[in-house]
Design goal:
Layout (H helix, E strand, L loop, with lengths): L4 E10 L5 E8 L9 E4 L3 E5 L6 H25 L3 H4 L9 E9 L3 E10 L7 E11 L5 E6 L2 E4 L25 H8 L1 E4 L3 H5 L17 H6 L7 H12 L2 E9 L2 E8 L8 E4 L5 H13 L7 E5 L10 H11 L4 E6 L2 H4 L7 E7 L2 E5 L3 H8 L5 H7 L10
Length: 394
């Protein structure tokens, strides 16, 4: 019997402004996910499911691919505390991890795949890697590597092969493979920690913004204020009712943000340090900063954007997420009925895990029709009977 393989397949198609977006993902044995997990994506996709169902694992597939391009495979695995945390747990021979990707734009098509194998739970090696690209008007070009040896590829571009890392990040500077590496690099998933936004930060040129907001001030500083200030101030003003401006200030070699609050009738307007702001204010500021990055990311994932946010402000946050989906694909995870009250039922994907088998799919048609007829909102259905998935076709 063959060893089960962790398999990830992504299909990217032209999106807004010519940017590619992921149409569907097929995953097996990645982190906690079971076999043959298929996720269909729209411009805005909202993942809903119980704790431990696999929502975070699904979005981490995107972040893992991006980390492989920016940190290298070894760095991406180390970031997740080793290969044992990347591949699905096995009581026997460790599973292989396989990822396959296809991207398509009007001027660019590409395919990319690699397999990570290992004889022990704590070991891994790159078993194979393949890439193929075609720019409009040019002939197709690609390479193939098997068990540490070049099988095919450009004779003028063959860096040394190692068993611990991938070749694509090494050849990303070559104009023939740069578009493919860039698309993967420009994906990011965020879980904003307000404490990271509260403290002064050293300048950090890392792009895109770090996943917890550790360099959010640097992201703002490096962009023209015309690209972010009006949107950020408008959102925070609507959130708090009294924020009128935001500014960045250097302090003893660090960068800090200040928020200008409207005063009452007997006192003047006052600038407050970020350390004096609430968790909700800072978390919204971090999420909106992630959405306003330029150039737009290929994919922006946000884990539970509703955390620490007042229910009355969730509609405001959702509107920003929806607007961002016009230039980047946006993927959310949520447990919030208040957020679901504003979501299109067709954008929801339910994630379930029963006895190790993970299933992802749309809501059943009966519940979607109830929402379309405005008999109940998504949030009301979630509170009363929980959302139910369409049964798979025989």
């Amino acid at each position: 019997m063959r060893n089960p393989i962790a398999f990830v397949s992504l299909y990217l198609v032209p999106g807004a402004k010519g940017l590619p977006v992921i149409q569907s993902i097929s995953v097996s044995n990645f982190r906690c996910l079971g076999s043959d997990v298929i996720l269909g994506l729209s411009d805005l996709t909202v993942l809903v499911g119980r704790n431990g169902a696999g929502k975070s694992s699904l979005v981490d597939v995107l972040q893992f691919l991006s980390d492989c391009m920016r940190l290298g495979l070894e760095g991406a695995i180390t970031k997740r505390h080793g290969i044992g945390a990347v591949r699905r747990w096995s009581s026997g021979h460790p599973h292989n991890v396989s990822i396959k990707l296809r991207t398509k734009r009007e001027d660019f098509d590409a395919e990319y795949a690699f397999v990570i194998a290992g004889d022990r739970e704590e070991e891994y090696r790159v078993q194979s890697e393949e890439a193929g690209v075609r720019m409009r008007g040019d002939a197709a070009l690609g390479y193939s590597i098997r068990e540490g040896k070049w099988i095919g590829g450009p004779e003028d571009l063959r860096p040394p092969v190692t068993s611990m890392n991938l070749i694509l990040p090494l050849v990303a500077g070559d104009s023939r493979f740069k578009p493919l590496a860039d698309e993967l690099r420009r994906m990011a998933v965020y879980s904003i920690f307000p404490d990271f936004l509260r403290e002064p930060q050293k300048y950090d040129p890392t792009r895109p913004m770090r996943e917890h907001g550790e360099n959010w001030i640097s992201i703002l500083k490096d962009q023209s204020e015309s690209e972010w200030k009006s949107d950020l101030v408008s959102a925070l003003s609507s959130l708090t009712g009294d924020i009128q401006d935001v500014r960045i200030r250097p302090v003893s070699g660090f960068l800090t943000t200040q928020f200008k609050h409207q005063a009452n009738r007997v006192s003047r307007n006052k600038w407050f340090e970020s350390s004096q702001e609430s968790d909700g204010t800072l978390r919204v500021a971090g999420i909106i900063t992630a959405l306003l990055q330029t150039p737009p990311l290929t994919v922006v994932g946000v884990e539970e954007p509703e955390l620490t946010v007042h229910p009355g402000a969730i509609r405001l946050l959702y509107d920003f997420l929806k607007q961002a989906s016009r230039s980047s694909q946006v993927v959310l995870t949520t447990h919030s009925p208040d957020l679901l009250d504003h979501v299109d039922a067709d954008d929801v994907r339910l994630v379930e895990n029963k006895e190790g088998a993970t299933t992802v799919g749309p809501m059943n048609e009966e519940q979607r029709q109830v929402v379309r007829d405005r008999l109940m909102s998504l949030g009301e259905i979630m509170r009363s009977e929980y959302l139910q998935m369409d049964l798979p076709l025989e």
